[in-house]
Design goal:
This protein has 281 residues and is α/β, with parallel strands linked by helices. It has eleven helices and seven strands. The strands form two sheets. It has a five-stranded mixed sheet with strand order 3-4-5-6-7, sandwiched between helices. The chain has a two-stranded parallel sheet with strand order 1-2. The longest helix has 29 residues, at 157-185. It binds ligand FVH.
């Protein structure tokens, strides 16, 4: 285990508690002490930690830290299975795989969605991608960490899932924060509203699935009602927000897309059909 921050330590503790012989290394060596007390062996260098085990799990702050630590490991990676759980992009994952393969190591890229205290329970999601044979060989050990899903041989696929899930979370939550600004500006209680919003959001999940299918097939039902009807609300929604000083950027984006889709003759379709207007890079 290379990297003993909040997440790395939680992962090492899980392996130790499940009876796996665990060797740990961290840039700041003192962070290894509590794990040594729990039964791990601390290695003085990352290269020596790697030499001590066939499965090498890396969980560091970012890709810069990964590059630095792997740079120090270098040829010692030969014959190992390198599993990188550090957050990063699909491109970084593919570059790490090339680095590993060039040194005779197999590579698995994983990402973590959940909090350190819940590692070792199904509440933490671990998408993986890369070497299928390495995943099949070490899948049982990796499943000790949480809910594991394999996304295929392309080493970048787990990062695609991660980037999409995390970004979607931020897209939804920034919208929610602006909504709380609206609720607060109108003098209503934001916590009480959040309680009610939690159940409204819960009812959205079937809609996400149907929108996914609509985008896949290109067949857009009037989900949330026909755009012709929805668009009628947008002017009031925007002018209300403006009147109380709440952000309208996102609402203007929605209105602009609706107006364009209606102008293109698709007013009977639903919100999902706006996908057709989103920029294709
Ligand atoms: N913690 C969380 O809730 C989230 C949940 C979702 C996934 N993330 C990702 O997990 C990676 C590790 O995050 P972390 O929470 O363990 O982060 P820290 O506690 O800050 O520990 C960072 C470790 O990285 C080491 N480190 C940083 N820079 C370097 C470097 N240049 N060379 C070597 N090691 C480096 C640091 O070492 P030290 O400061 O203790 O010496 C820690 O071991 C991350 O990708 C999250 O996005 C966590």
């Amino acid at each position: 285990m290379l990297g003993l921050g909040d997440m790395g330590s939680a992962i090492a503790r899980t392996f130790i508690s499940r009876g796996y012989r665990t060797t740990v290394w961290n840039r700041t060596a003192s962070k290894a002490l509590p794990l040594v007390d729990s039964g791990a062996t601390a290695a003085p260098t990352a290269a020596e930690a790697v030499a001590a085990s066939r499965l090498v799990v890396v969980c560091l702050l970012d890709s810069t830290a990964v590059d630095e630590v792997l740079g120090a490991v270098d040829a010692a990676a030969a014959g190992t299975v390198l599993v990188n759980l550090t957050s990063g992009s699909p491109q970084q994952a593919r570059a790490n795989e090339r680095w590993a393969n060039e040194r005779g190591a197999a590579y698995l890229d994983g990402k973590i969605m959940g909090d350190p205290p819940y590692v070792g329970t199904p509440n933490v999601m671990f998408p993986f991608s890369g070497s299928r044979s390495a995943f099949e060989a070490h899948g049982p050990m990796l499943r000790e960490l949480g809910t594991v899903v394999y996304h295929g041989e392309d080493a970048g696929s787990a990062a695609v899932e991660f980037m999409a899930q995390v970004a979607m979370g931020y897209e939804i939550l920034i919208g929610f924060l602006h909504t709380l600004r609206l609720v607060q500006a109108e003098g209503a209680d934001v916590a009480d509203f959040a309680e009610r919003a939690a159940s409204s959001v819960a009812s959205l999940s079937p809609l996400l699935t149907s929108i996914g299918n609509a985008v896949r097939t290109g067949d857009y039902p009037p989900d949330l009602g026909a755009l012709n009807v929805q668009a009628a609300l947008m002017d009031d929604l925007i002018s209300h927000r403006e009147s109380i000083g709440v952000d309208v950027v996102r609402m203007r984006e929605v209105k602009d897309l609706m107006d364009r889709r209606i102008a293109d003759g698709f007013g009977a379709q639903g919100f999902s059909s706006l996908f057709e207007l989103l920029a294709k890079s």
